[in-house]
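A.,

Following up on our hallway conversation. C-alpha cells first:
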C-alpha cells in the first residue's frame, strides 16, 4: 500500500523529541549487574576471537576503560588470554593493539553464558532507563496542530477530508478503530499518522530486566535516521551519546492475519534462542497496527481483551522465560483496522473503550482521476482520454467504488501487457479492459491493499 495513495513530496528532517542519552562513564551508571557485562564479553570473544580493546568497545557499545576493567577481572579468573601483535609490526608495542582471546576455561564459561542467554550485541540498558526514555518520547508530550497533520498527509490523495478527525486522534494517544471497505487506504493512512510529529526517537538494542536480556531493536521494524550515523562516528566526546541506543524514525509496526498471542509476549526464535521483545514493546513511541481484525486464528474477543489493561493504564505486564513478570511502558498508538462490520465482530463494551472510530470511504471521482494520472506518470505511461471513459463505465457496470488501491494495481498489469506486446507506453481502452479482466474475478471482486 506504500505507493497507493502517494503524491510526490519531499521528506522533512526529523529531530529527536528527547535529549540524547548521555555516555555512561562508570559501571554504576549502567544500572545493570557487572556479571551481565562479563558474560556478554565472553560471548563476544567467542564470536570475535582475538579482538582488541577498540573492537570490543564497538561491539559492547560501552567505554573502552570499562572494557579494560572487565578484561582485567576476566584475566584474574584465568578466562582470558593475551595475544601480542606481530613482532614485525610497528604497532607491536601499542597496548591498543594487544588482542584478547578465551582460555580453555574461558570457552567453557562462554558456553555456559550462551546456555543461560544467547543474546549477542551491544550491552543492554536497564528497564528503569528504558521506561524513563519511553515516557520522555510520549506521543502526547508534543501536541500536533492542523498544519502538522496537513503536512504529514500531503502525499495522500483524499486525506484532506479526514484531517479534522485524524489530528485529535493523534493527540489523544488513545486506540483507534479504522474500518471500511478493503482498498480504501486504512493501513497506509495509519502508518502515516505519526509523521505529523516530525520527531525521531531513541530505541535500545536490548533491555535487561529481572535477569534476562530482551532484544528490542529490530532491523525489520526500526529505521535509523541519518543523524544517528553522524553522531556515532564523531570523535568529539560531547557530540556522542550512549551507543546502546539507536536514533530511529518512530516505529510503525503492522501485523495482520498472522498475529498469534505468542507474538505479544517475550519469546525466542527457534534457531538462536535470543529472547525477543513482543510487538507492542518494539512499537513503543510509535504505532502498532492490528490489520485484518477478525481474520486472525483466535477469536476477536481474545485479541481485544488482551489490550484492555494496556489501553487503560499505559503499561503492560509481560511474563519472562524464568517465570518472573515485568511491567513495561505501553506508550504508543494502537490502531485496529478491519473491512468487516465492527458491530458484528466486537463487543459493544470494547468499542466504547476505543477513543476514535474512523470510517474510510472510496475516493471522490476527481481524486481518483488525479491518482490515476499520478500513478501512470510515475511509471512513464500515459492514459488516453477514451481510456478514462472506459474506466468509469467499468466501475459503473461492476458497481466498484473508486478505491485508491486500484490505480496502482491495474496500471501495473497494463504496463506488463504493454511490455509483452512491445506497444507504445500508452494505456488504451483495449489494454485497460484486458487489465481489468485479469485483476477482477468473474463476480467483479478484486484483491486490494488496505
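Then the amino acids I'd put at each of the 450 positions:
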Amino acid at each position: 500500500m506504500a505507493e497507493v495513495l502517494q503524491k510526490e513530496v519531499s521528506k522533512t528532517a526529523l529531530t529527536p523529541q528527547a535529549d540524547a542519552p548521555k555516555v555512561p562513564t562508570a559501571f554504576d551508571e549502567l544500572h545493570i549487574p557487572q556479571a551481565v557485562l562479563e558474560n556478554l564479553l565472553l560471548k563476544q570473544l567467542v564470536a570475535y576471537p582475538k579482538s582488541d580493546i577498540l573492537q570490543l568497545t564497538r561491539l559492547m557499545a560501552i567505554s573502552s576503560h570499562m572494557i579494560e576493567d572487565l578484561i582485567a577481572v576476566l584475566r584474574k579468573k584465568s578466562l582470558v588470554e593475551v595475544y601480542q601483535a606481530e613482532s614485525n609490526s610497528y604497532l607491536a608495542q601499542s597496548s591498543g593493539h594487544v588482542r584478547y582471546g578465551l582460555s580453555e576455561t574461558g570457552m567453557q564459561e562462554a558456553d555456559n553464558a550462551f546456555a543461560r542467554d544467547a543474546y549477542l550485541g551491544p550491552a543492554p540498558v536497564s528497564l528503569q532507563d528504558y521506561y524513563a526514555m519511553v515516557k520522555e518520547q510520549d506521543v502526547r508530550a508534543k501536541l500536533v496542530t492542523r498544519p502538522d497533520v496537513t503536512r504529514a498527509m500531503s502525499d495522500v490523495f483524499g486525506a484532506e477530508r479526514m484531517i479534522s478527525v485524524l489530528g485529535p486522534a493523534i493527540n489523544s494517544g488513545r486506540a483507534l478503530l479504522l474500518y471500511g471497505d478493503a482498498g480504501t487506504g486504512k493501513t497506509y493512512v495509519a502508518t502515516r499518522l505519526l509523521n505529523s510529529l516530525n520527531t525521531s526517537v531513541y530505541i535500545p538494542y536490548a533491555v535487561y530486566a529481572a535477569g534476562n536480556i530482551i532484544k528490542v531493536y529490530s532491523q525489520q521494524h526500526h529505521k535509523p535516521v541519518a543523524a544517528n550515523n553522524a553522531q556515532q562516528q564523531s570523535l568529539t566526546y560531547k557530540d556522542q551519546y550512549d551507543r546502546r541506543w539507536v536514533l530511529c524514525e518512530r516505529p510503525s509496526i503492522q501485523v495482520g492475519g498472522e498475529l498469534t498471542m505468542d507474538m505479544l509476549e517475550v519469546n525466542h526464535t527457534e534457531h538462536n534462542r535470543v529472547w525477543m521483545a513482543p510487538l507492542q514493546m518494539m512499537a513503543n513511541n510509535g504505532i502498532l497496527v492490528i490489520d485484518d481484525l477478525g481474520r486472525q486464528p483466535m477469536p476477536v474477543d481474545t485479541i481485544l481483551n488482551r489490550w484492555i489493561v494496556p489501553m487503560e493504564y499505559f503499561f503492560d505486564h509481560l511474563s519472562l522465560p524464568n517465570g518472573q513478570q515485568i511491567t513495561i511502558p505501553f506508550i504508543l498508538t494502537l490502531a485496529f483496522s478491519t473491512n468487516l462490520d465492527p458491530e458484528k465482530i466486537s463487543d459493544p463494551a470494547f468499542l466504547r473503550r476505543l477513543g476514535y472510530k474512523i470510517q474510510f470511504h472510496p475516493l471522490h471521482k476527481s481524486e481518483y482521476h488525479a491518482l490515476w494520472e499520478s500513478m501512470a506518470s510515475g511509471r512513464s505511461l500515459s492514459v488516453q482520454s477514451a481510456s478514462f471513459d472506459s474506466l468509469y463505465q467499468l466501475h459503473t457496470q461492476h458497481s466498484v467504488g473508486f478505491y485508491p488501491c486500484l490505480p496502482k494495481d491495474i496500471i501495473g498489469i497494463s504496463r506488463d501487457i504493454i511490455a509483452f506486446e512491445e506497444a507504445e507506453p500508452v494505456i488504451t481502452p483495449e489494454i485497460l479492459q484486458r487489465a481489468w479482466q485479469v485483476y477482477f474475478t468473474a463476480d467483479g471482486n478484486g484483491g486490494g491493499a488496505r
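Confidence is low (pLDDT under 50) at residues 1-11, 87-95. Curious whether your intuition agrees with the design.

B.
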